[in-house]
Every structure is written in structure tokens, then in C-alpha cells.
């Protein structure tokens, strides 16, 4: 299985530096655009810390990329056929959130991601992570709580939610078993 888990720090660090260099941005420029501190970005680029999902989403957004797009670039170009053994997997060091990039190509508007959210965990993603995309979440196992603005929705197995305009969203697993869901998104 292709995995970012074993060498993700190196691949992500290189990709962040390359994305900054291609744009001629300093650490301060990226920090201002992403809302992530210069010190944190520097530590990620020096492979001293592993970034959380929220930090990666903010950094990707600053580059006008989705999280999948940033991870895909870190991993290399995608192929038309996405074999399970070659699908990149990334794990959030803070929550254990596990993200499998099922399908993503730079020349295709559709991305498919499978997420396993451990029991009792939550991930808060800023509105910026939804800029330029439309997405739907489809629960495969367990229950998923979505907090979107003032709305609280509980999705069970088979339930699917299409997201509206960009707003901060919390994905929460309030149960004692993992929740597995699929995210399908298109770039707009």
C-alpha cells in the first residue's frame, strides 16, 4: 500500500518548500496567507513536527489547493487507475484521523477520499478548506456528527450530506467505535 504515513514528513516538507519557492513566497508570506505561524511552517519544512489535518488544510488553501491536491503533489502525479495498494494514506498525528486518497488527478475535477475518524475524535476544518470545491459526505460505518454553522446533523450508515457555501465545519465521532466515511468533491 502506498503510504504517506512512513515518509510523509519528508514529502510534505519538500512540497511546501517547493510550493513556496514556485510563488516566490517567504515563510512570512505563507504564514500571512494561511494563518499558520512562521515557526510552525519552519518546523514542518525542517521535518521537526508532523502537521495536523487542520494545518495542512490551511496551508493547502493558501496555495489555492485542496488538501487532496497538496497531498497528491507531495506523493507525485496520479494515474487514471487508482489501485488500493497505491492509494496514498495519511494519518493526522493529533487525532489519528486516517485519510485515504482513493482518486485524484490534476486533470480531473473529481476527488474521492475515504476517512476513518477514530472513536471520540473530532476535526474542525476552516471555511477556507471549502473554497473552490463542492463536496458530499457518505457514511460507510458508524455515526458521524457534522457541525456546520448553527446546524448539528447526525449521519448514520448510508446517509449522505451535500455541503453548502463555505463555512467552518466540525466532523465528530461521538461514539466508541470508528466512523468511516467517503468524501466526494469537485473543484469549482
Describe the structure in your own words:
With 188 residues, the chain is of the alpha+beta class. The chain folds into two domains: 68 residues, 434 Repressor (Amino-terminal Domain) (Orthogonal Bundle); 104 residues, Jelly Rolls. It is built from five helices and ten strands, in the order αααααββββββββββ. The strands form two sheets. It has a six-stranded antiparallel β-sheet with strand order 1-2-3-10-5-8, covered by helices on one side. Strands 4-9-6-7 form a four-stranded antiparallel β-sheet. α1 crosses α5 and α2 crosses α4. It is globular, with a radius of gyration of 16 Å.
Topology:
Blueprint: H1 8-23, H2 27-34, H3 38-45, H4 53-62, H5 67-75, E1 89-91, E2 98-103, E3 110-117, E4 122-125, E5 133-141, E6 144-148, E7 151-155, E8 160-162, E9 169-172, E10 179-187
Antiparallel strand pairs: 1-2, 2-3, 3-10, 4-9, 5-8, 5-10, 6-7, 6-9
Descriptive keywords:
single chain; 188 residues; alpha+beta; four-stranded antiparallel β-sheet; 10 strands; 30% strand; disordered N terminus
Summed up:
The protein has 188 residues and is of the alpha+beta class.
The number of domains is: 2
* SSE pattern, N- to C-terminal: HHHHHEEEEEEEEEE
Spatial order of strands in the largest sheet? 1-2-3-10-5-8
User: Uncertain regions: pLDDT < 50 for 5+ in a row?
Assistant: 1-6
Mean pLDDT across all residues, rounded?
88
What structural category do the secondary elements indicate? Answer: alpha+beta
CATH fold field value of the largest domain = Jelly Rolls
Total number of β-strand segments?
10
- Total DSSP helices: 5
The level 1 CATH classification of the largest domain is Mainly Beta
Strand content: 25-35%
The first-to-last residue Cα distance is: 30 Å
**Architecture (CATH level 2) name of the largest domain:** Sandwich
Largest sheet: 6 strands, antiparallel
Query: Helical percent range?
Result: 25-40%
Overall geometry: globular
Radius of gyration over alpha carbons? 16 Å
CATH superfamily annotation of the largest domain:
Jelly Rolls
Amino acid at each position: 500500500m502506498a503510504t504517506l504515513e512512513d515518509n510523509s514528513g519528508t514529502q510534505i516538507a519538500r512540497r511546501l518548500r517547493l510550493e513556496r519557492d514556485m510563488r516566490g513566497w517567504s515563510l512570512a508570506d505563507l504564514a500571512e496567507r494561511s494563518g499558520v505561524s512562521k515557526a510552525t511552517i519552519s518546523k514542518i519544512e525542517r521535518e521537526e513536527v508532523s502537521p495536523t489535518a487542520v494545518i495542512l488544510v490551511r496551508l493547502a488553501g493558501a496555495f489555492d489547493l485542496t488538501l487532496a491536491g497538496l497531498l497528491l503533489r507531495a506523493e507525485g502525479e496520479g494515474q487514471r487507475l487508482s489501485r488500493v495498494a497505491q492509494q496514498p494514506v495519511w494519518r493526522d498525528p493529533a487525532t489519528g484521523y486516517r485519510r485515504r486518497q482513493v482518486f485524484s488527478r490534476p486533470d480531473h475535477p473529481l476527488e474521492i477520499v475515504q476517512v476513518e475518524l477514530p472513536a471520540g475524535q473530532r476535526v474542525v476544518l476552516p471555511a477556507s478548506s471549502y473554497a473552490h470545491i463542492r463536496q458530499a459526505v457518505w457514511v460507510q460505518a458508524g455515526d458521524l456528527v457534522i457541525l456546520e454553522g448553527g446546524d448539528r446533523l447526525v449521519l448514520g450508515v448510508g446517509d449522505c450530506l451535500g455541503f453548502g457555501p463555505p463555512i467552518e465545519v466540525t466532523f465528530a465521532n461521538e461514539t466508541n467505535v470508528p466512523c468511516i466515511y467517503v468524501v466526494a468533491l469537485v473543484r469549482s
